[in-house]
């Protein structure tokens, strides 16, 4: 673990071409050269024991180490985990912004990896899926096993020649159902996950219908509805969410959610064992309530803003408050709000993603713990 917790190091390459901007105060001459922006490797890899099916990925190598300037992230790998809708390309702007910040500040950075799961983006369909998409071909447990095999093969191909360790210390940056996959991964493979950045996690234990009042229930009281919201508004919203978001609805990826509430019945459990036997560093971020309400109204669902503000947003906030309990003590911060971002935080706020990844890496390297108000949540 010592190589992962060394203090932050100023990083400088002798043969780079980028120049440090004059308005950046780094204690160095404005003519000093920076390390070059790394080239992305855009490729695919056939997973072992998956009948040759290929996963497509984008990979950025870690900044190199030098004898007097070791990279404290040399044994780390940041993996970006998509939701169901947006492919790996949705992370590109955030990744570029992150790399620009690290290079400009002459700071090291870990290897970065985004990928499309089977049935998503450029990748092949899961060879074990039956029937044409949309379907319930495989579940999140299958996605977790594929992720383990994928990261293992990537690590062997790119990193083990210079860093002879069997498996990297993983840092997951996740959106939506990617957060559930990260939790299940850390649970299935304890000791492998060093850090987690959750960007508007899926409510894994929700059917996305029950969070709305049911006008057809015997105990329904119409006077409890917000002013200006009718029973028809609520009934229509429940039906639209049932058709689009209920776990029984199949998707084009073939990644079923039918058993997700069974796999992760609680937001605050299980408590995860991270890298080196410690709890992983965790940042929990939720969407901006106003932005999400606006997008829900102007999008295909046309959900009245007041309904989203009254029911959906508080339910999501409560779930996020539970998530901070899945690691130990002061390792978690949040839930914080991704200002100006709806559910797809990486699309709406790439700068927010890069800033929070920088902050998470700083905590990982310097072993910084945060004061987190968790009293009463998840008990």
UniProtKB/TrEMBL annotation:
Coiled-coil segments on the chain, per record: none
Pfam families membership: Abhydrolase_6 (PF12697)
Record domain AB hydrolase-1: where: 78-353
Superkingdom of the organism of origin: Eukaryota
InterPro entries for this protein: AB_hydrolase_1, AB_hydrolase_fold
Name of the protein this chain belongs to: AB hydrolase-1 domain-containing protein
Species this chain originates from: Massarina eburnea CBS 473.64
């Amino acid at each position: 673990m010592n190589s992962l917790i060394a203090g932050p190091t100023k990083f400088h390459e002798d043969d780079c071409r980028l120049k440090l901007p004059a308005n950046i105060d780094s204690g160095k001459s404005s003519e000093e050269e920076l390390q070059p922006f790394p080239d992305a490797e855009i490729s695919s890899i056939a997973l072992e024991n998956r009948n040759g099916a290929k996963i497509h990925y984008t990979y950025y190598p870690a900044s190199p180490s030098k004898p007097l300037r070791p990279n404290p992230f040399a044994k780390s790998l940041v993996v970006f985990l998509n939701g169901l809708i947006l492919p790996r390309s949705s992370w590109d702007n955030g990744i570029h912004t992150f790399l620009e910040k690290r290079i400009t500040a002459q700071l090291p950075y870990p290897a970065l990896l985004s990928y499309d799961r089977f049935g998503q983006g450029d990748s092949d369909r899961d060879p074990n899926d039956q029937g044409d998409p949309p379907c319930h071909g495989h579940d999140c447990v299958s996605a977790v096993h594929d992720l383990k095999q994928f990261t293992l093969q990537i690590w062997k191909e790119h990193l083990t020649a210079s860093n002879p360790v069997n498996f990297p210390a993983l840092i997951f940056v996740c959106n939506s159902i990617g957060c559930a996959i990260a939790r299940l991964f850390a649970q299935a493979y304890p000791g492998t996950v060093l850090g987690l950045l959750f960007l508007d996690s899926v409510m894994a234990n929700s059917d996305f219908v029950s969070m709305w009042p049911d006008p057809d229930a015997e105990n329904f009281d119409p006077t409890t509805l917000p002013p200006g919201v009718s029973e028809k508004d609520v009934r229509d919203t429940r039906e639209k969410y049932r058709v689009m978001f209920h776990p029984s609805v199949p998707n084009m990826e073939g990644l079923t959610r039918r058993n997700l509430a069974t796999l992760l019945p609680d937001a605050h459990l299980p408590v995860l064992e991270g890298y080196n036997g410690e709890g992983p560093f965790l940042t929990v971020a939720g969407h901006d309530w106003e932005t999400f309400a606006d997008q829900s109204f102007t999008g295909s669902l046309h959900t009245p803003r007041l309904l989203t503000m009254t029911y959906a947003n508080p339910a999501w906030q409560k779930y996020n408050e539970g998530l901070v309990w899945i690691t130990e003590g002061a390792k978690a911060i949040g839930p914080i709000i991704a200002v100006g971002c709806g559910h797809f935080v990486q699309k709406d706020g790439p700068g927010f993603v890069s800033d929070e990844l920088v902050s998470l890496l700083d905590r990982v390297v310097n072993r910084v713990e945060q004061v987190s108000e968790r009293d009463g949540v998840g008990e």
